[in-house]
Amino acid sequence: MDERKRDSMIAYLRHRMDEFGIRPEDLAAALATESLAKKAARYRNATGDSWDGNGEMPQWLKQAISAGQSIEHFELSENPAPAPQPKKQVDWSNDPFAGTRLARQNSR
């Protein structure tokens, strides 16, 4: 976003916050509460639905368990999984079978 658009958006947001009586402290508190709620999630599905493990189990999790999925499948780990490594590129330039019948044979 260029600087003028950014400044314009900030001015608009400040105007709207003044209009509704929202102070920057209120906004900061709301954002902090949201981040705490996200951290408190203990189970999450692929669509982003989450549950903290307290209270009644949500319907999405009940359905998944009744369909045979384990609850551990949805459990969030404290250590996120490492990012997948890029696949190694194969150098076919020295392929001894290039151009032979073996290389052209269709697999069935």
Automatic annotation (TrEMBL):
This is H-NS histone family protein. InterPro entries: H-NS_C_dom, H-NS_C_dom_sf. Signal peptide: none annotated. Residues 76-108 are annotated as: Disordered. It comes from the Bacteria. It comes from Paraburkholderia translucens. Residues 41-75 form the DNA-binding protein H-NS-like C-terminal domain. Pfam families: Histone_HNS (PF00816).
